[in-house]
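Weekly sync notes, structure subgroup
Attendees: PM, AL, DS (notes)

Item 1: joint prediction request from the bench team. They want all two components modeled as one assembly rather than separately. Inputs as received:
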Amino acid sequence: MTDKHQQRMAAKKAVMDAKIAKATEERGILILMKGNGKGKSSSAFGTMARSLGHGKRCAVVQFLKGREETGELKFFRDHPMVDWHVMGDGFTWETQNKEQDIATAQKAWETARPYLSNPAYDLLIFDEMSYMFKYHYLDVEPVVEALQQRPKHQNVIITGRTMATPLQEIADTISSVEDERHAFRLGVKAQAGIEF
Amino acid sequence: MTDKHQQRMAAKKAVMDAKIAKATEERGILILMKGNGKGKSSSAFGTMARSLGHGKRCAVVQFLKGREETGELKFFRDHPMVDWHVMGDGFTWETQNKEQDIATAQKAWETARPYLSNPAYDLLIFDEMSYMFKYHYLDVEPVVEALQQRPKHQNVIITGRTMATPLQEIADTISSVEDERHAFRLGVKAQAGIEF
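Output from the run, pasted for the record:
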């Protein structure tokens, strides 16, 4: 019994080792976290914690601002290796003003763009950026171009429900977070530390 | 044009506000992060950063240990509000020893269990725990029972590819992270700050 287990696992290890041996290219990647489920932005911030643990320099640009003081803002903003920019005036149904939303989106992109030509930054997070394309507040082409010209080692994570096709075409990793159940629909109130 | 936009957004806001008004229950939730895509554990750690930003006390038990020094371990382990336990001897195909894996799983559960009766902890993360059930290293029933009896305000996040059905039955939020693309398959080597 144990021998069979050992043999199966040894075979699995050989397969895994061969796969790992084939992945040799060293470069930064573009990660898209999309889908309607909970966990896209928190995944980006968890990856940032991971990068900070290895001494990497990071920048966050939040394209939509929902609440004044999120837990992630409070937690990360004073870290010496983190730049954190909260842009946006809230969700589009809060402002109800398209011109204002477009101006804010443009300002957020002007904040984000210089990081894509700054090799001092190892990880960039453009949080909720995908809505800018969905609502046509930003053109995707200049963003694709800037992403393609960024420093080779730089990693970028973009989050948001629906992703513009040109971003999906150039992405290295795409995870789609599917909502199978959400406490909110069970009547549980959004709470500090979990939803914001 | 602008008026139409304003009207549409005002209607959307009314729908959102009504939904928010209906979610009034205040309690901790059980979140499952499952699926084969990248971002499950990092989502849990991002949520932990969010909780820490609000001054919440957290504990992490990692049921599988892949590498010696992950970025998340380095980043969080010295935080005064975090307990961090790395259990496990690596993946099953690394140990190739079923008895050892079972003993390690049991020890990890004995480490995790007391937190579920300790109201001082607001957020618990049982990282990669789902493998323990998949490989029959742990029974799921005692885990379900302990989860159901935990302090009312306590949030728990369990991560792992496949989730045991009894856990899905009692979960409040389930996100399934689907792998649409992964840099690893494009030949990009796993890198510090992104994969570990």
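Discussion: The beta strands of chain A are 30-34, 58-62, 82-86, 123-127, 155-159, 173-181.
Action: AL to compare against the crosslinking data before next sync.
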